[in-house]
């Protein structure tokens, strides 16, 4: 998984049925030093995360779709955890 | 999923059968300011998107899921939503 920060909520009325009634979060993936890494992504929310939260993101499809209870659907990324802290060895 | 804008379409008369009747659209990935970011790709439309619209697409095997199990569609990029807005908190 990857560490990210939720930077926005995506509003999309016309979307695949499996994305309905799901929050779609706009997430900036982070390096360990907190700096941004790569282009922000869209992930379905499996844990009710909100803007500003530091989160755990899966970018593997089967994990993503099952985390929101939608197997066999076009979902390739999901937020699967809200991070309290990251402790790195000194 | 990733955000992009549809900048064109692709016409293939000769193609793999399950691609029949599906729109092939050229997608330009975007960054959070809406400017171009990275290289364009071709994606299949699953939600009735058109040129000029800001969309998001799904990549990988999951991209073929909208038609599964009826069809095994050879796609690794499928447009699965049309973005109305992104509220940056």
Can you give a write-up of this model?
The complex is a heterodimer of chains A (90) and B (89). Chain A has 90 residues and is mainly beta. Chain A has 1 helix and 6 strands, in the order βββββαβ. Chain A has one domain (2-82): EutN/Ccml (OB fold (Dihydrolipoamide Acetyltransferase, E2P)). Chain A is globular, with a radius of gyration of 13 Å. The longest helix of chain A has 7 residues, at 61-67. The mean pLDDT of chain B is 97. Chain B has 89 residues and is mostly beta strands. Chain B has a 5-stranded mixed beta barrel with strand order 1-2-3-5-4. The A-B interface holds A 6-16, 18-19, 24, 26, 28, 39-43, 50-52, 61-62, 64-65, 72-77 and B 1-3, 29, 31-32, 37-38, 46-49, 56, 58-63, 65-66, 68-69, 78, 80-89. Strand 1 of chain A pairs antiparallel with strand 6 (85-88) of chain B, so a sheet runs across the interface.
CATH architecture of chain A: Beta Barrel
The chain pair with the largest interface is: A-B, 34 and 34 residues
Tally of individual domains of chain A: 1
Could you estimate the helical fraction of the residues of chain B in percent?
under 10%
State the distance separating the first and last CA atoms of chain B.
19 Å
When the domains of chain B are counted, the total is 1
| Shape-level CATH architecture of chain B | Beta Barrel
Which value, in Å, is the CA radius of gyration of chain A? 13 Å
How many β-strand stretches of chain A?
6
Per CATH, the superfamily of chain B is EutN/Ccml
Q: Tell me the radius of gyration of chain B.
A: 13 Å
Describe the oligomeric state of these chains in a short phrase.
Answer: heterodimer
The unreliable regions of chain A are none
What spatial form of chain A do the alpha-carbon principal axes imply? globular
CATH class of chain A: Mainly Beta
What structural category do the secondary elements of chain A indicate?
A: mainly beta
């Amino acid at each position: 998984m990857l560490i990210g920060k939720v930077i926005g909520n995506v509003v999309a009325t016309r979307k695949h049925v499996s994305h309905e009634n799901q929050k779609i979060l706009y997430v900036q993936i982070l390096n360990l030093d907190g700096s941004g890494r790569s282009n922000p992504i869209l992930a379905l929310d499996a844990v009710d995360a909100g803007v500003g939260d530091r989160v755990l993101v899966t970018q593997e499809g089967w994990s993503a779709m099952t985390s929101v209870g939608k197997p066999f659907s076009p979902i390739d990324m999901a937020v699967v955890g809200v991070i309290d802290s990251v402790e790195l060895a000194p | 999923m990733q955000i992009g804008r549809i900048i064109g379409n692709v016409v293939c008369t000769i193609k793999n059968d399950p691609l029949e009747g599906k729109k092939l659209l050229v997608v330009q990935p975007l960054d959070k300011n809406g400017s171009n970011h990275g290289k364009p790709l071709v994606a299949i439309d699953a939600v009735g998107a058109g040129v000029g619209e800001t969309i998001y697409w799904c990549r990988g095997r999951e991209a073929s899921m909208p038609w599964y199990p009826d069809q095994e569609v050879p796609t690794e990029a499928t447009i699965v939503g049309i973005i109305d807005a992104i509220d940056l908190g």
